[in-house]
Amino acid sequence: MKVDVHGLTLKYGDAVAVSDLDLAVNEGESLVLLGQSGCGKTSTMRCIAGLETPASAVITIGDQTVFDSGRGINRAPNKRNVGMVFQSYAIWPHMTVFENVAFPLKMKGRKKAEINEAVHETLELVGLDHLAERGASLLSGGQMQRVALARSLAMQPSVLLLDEPLSNLDARLRHRLRMELRELQLRLKLTSLYVTHDQDEALALADRIALMQAGRIVQIGEPHEIYANPKSASIAEFLGVDNVIPVTPEDTTCVQLTATGQKLSVEPYEAAETLRLCVRAEDVLLAAGGTGDVNALPGTIVSFAFQGSTVAYRVRVGDGLELDAVQMKSAGPLFGMNDAVTVSLPARAMRVLPAEVAA
Q1: What would the pLDDT profile of 329-347 be if each residue is shown by its tens digit?
Q2: CA-to-CA distance for 27 and 115, rounded, in angstroms?
Q3: Which of 348, 349, 342, 318 is nearest to 256 (CA)?
Q4: Which of 228, 229, 233, 258 is nearest to 243 (CA)?
Q5: Are residues 201 and 162 in contact, defined by beta-carbon separation less than 8 angstroms?
Q6: Which domains does the chain have, with CATH numbers?
Q7: Which Enzyme Commission number(s) are listed (predicted)?
């Protein structure tokens, strides 16, 4: 079912956690709320679930209004038909896997045969049917999170809410479960809202990403749009852009590096009070000799790190300015400490952006 949030404001005392937020999650869509800790993403989710009471908002799930501050509507969490999967597994260690998944169905008064069928079907979905009678305390972290997911899915919720459910797992398992979650969401056409601070997780799981800063959504769009066209330098930096450099405008296709005075040719950009040049490390090109390119800068290698198929470099290009560069191991010569290099910054790879999105 579709989820609509209008004018959501949440306060803790005098502190505003979420400010006049509008959000729509389409039916069958996976929308990811992405942002740093404290930006309001979990608070937004908790308001939808009914675990927080907003100062003002209208929240609907499907055709049911579950909260309306103006009309005094505030349906209890158990009346909203939402499933939640938390960062902590929140499963009962004294119960078996089957009993954990069956518990919410028993609370709803479902018949025994119906519960048995629903639990086994759901455990099969998450790959745990063979462990139905195992004690939950004997499971691995990944298995516990699958149980928590199965418990929510068994309820056939109108919307599935996931609050950083993979953050307690090691990197290899997190990657595997991320792919399993995406496969489940696509197969079941689940309406889901996923909260994370991990940009890779967001890009992998989302149909759309809503990026939050300071209690408000500053950009929303499909993953490839957000990745390629961040609206501000702070968003670009959060999305993994390594080089965010203060610049001074010369004209609409030229900027000056504030730290060194060097001029660079860039793609046309919009004027703003404070500008930053943003370029990803993999787009910074290194060469042993001069290139003759207008955007070629002399530099010196100050550090490097071998990363398997790639090598990461830190390059000093002037007093007070260092750039990160990543090169494929096979792309050219390997450089060492204090090697002189030419740094090329292709205009097509650079974005000149305002430091922040205007409020």
Answers
A1: 776 678 999 999 999 999 9
A2: 26
A3: 318
A4: 233
A5: no
A6: 3-228 (3.40.50.300), 234-354 (2.40.50.100)
A7: 7.6.2.9
